[in-house]
Amino acid sequence: MKIARYRIVAALRERGQQTRADWVERELPERVDPDRHVGLLATLRLDPADLADTPSP
Length: 57
Prior knowledge:
Elements: E1 3-4, H1 5-14, H2 18-27, E2 31-32, H3 38-43, H4 48-51
Antiparallel strand pairs: 1-2
Helix pairs in contact: 1-2
């Protein structure tokens, strides 16, 4: 399961965390592996299950 970077950025911007959103855009790959970035997602208080791309049928 991968997370599209734009979903993380959008969630942060909705919270008014513009600086963090800008950093995520610069530093993370377009497709984020939640297992590899679990610590960062926890620090940002983001639940990977809420951000994951829905699988295609």
